[in-house]
Amino acid sequence: MNILKILLVDDEEEFVTTLAERLELRGIQTRWATDGEEAIQMIESDPPQIVILDVMMPGLGGLEVLKRIKAQHPQIHVILLTGHGSTKEGIVGMRLGAFDYLMKPLDIEELIKKMQEAIKSRP
């Protein structure tokens, strides 16, 4: 895989830092944020190729972050993370422009496969 530049956004700091470390070990350039506002600021200063975005976050929720990303940076692929069997938010997110969604607990190999699919789908 070519070096990817991604942004992880999840309010669970232990989850996001551990996932970032695991992706970095696979040669994926990874930054992370623990809330939607921070993520938007990071995207504005240095847009990633892909955003991995948790749907359920306090404050600015994942679907609102997705709307803002797609309004300002439609070329950025967003993969949503939904928890505990909730596919409804994932489907809504795809209607709003998300590339795909994955369920937590996350399988890192499945995530990497989705990221590769997202990059391959770029025009």
Description:
The chain is of the alpha/beta class and 123 residues long. The protein has a single domain (5-120), classed as 3-Layer(aba) Sandwich (Rossmann fold), CATH 3.40.50. It has five helices and five strands; from the N terminus they run βαβαβαβαβα. The protein has helices spanning 13-25, 36-45, 62-72, 88-95, 108-120; strands spanning 5-9, 29-33, 50-54, 77-83, 100-104. It has a five-stranded parallel beta sheet, sandwiched between helices. Helix 3 links the parallel strand 3 and strand 4 (77-83). Helix 2 packs parallel to helix 3 (62-72). The model has no long low-confidence stretch (mean pLDDT 93).
Summarize the structure in short.
The protein is of the alpha/beta class. The chain is 45% helix and 22% strand.
| Corresponding CATH architecture | 3-Layer(aba) Sandwich
- What is the C-alpha radius of gyration, as a whole number of Å? 13 Å
Q: Using the coordinates above, name the CATH class.
A: Alpha Beta
**Mean of the pLDDT scores?**
93
The CATH superfamily is known as Response regulator
The count of β-strands is: 5
What sequence of helices (H) and strands (E) makes up the elements?
EHEHEHEHEH
What low-confidence regions span 5 or more consecutive residues with pLDDT below 50? Answer: none
Q: Give the distance, in angstroms, between the N- and C-terminal Cα atoms.
A: 17 Å
> How many domains, as an integer?
1
**How large a portion of the residues is in β-strands, by DSSP E?**
15-25%
Helix content: 40-55%
**Biggest β-sheet, characterized?**
5 strands, parallel
Shape: globular
Structural class: alpha/beta
> Strand arrangement, largest sheet?
2-1-3-4-5
Number of DSSP helical runs: 5
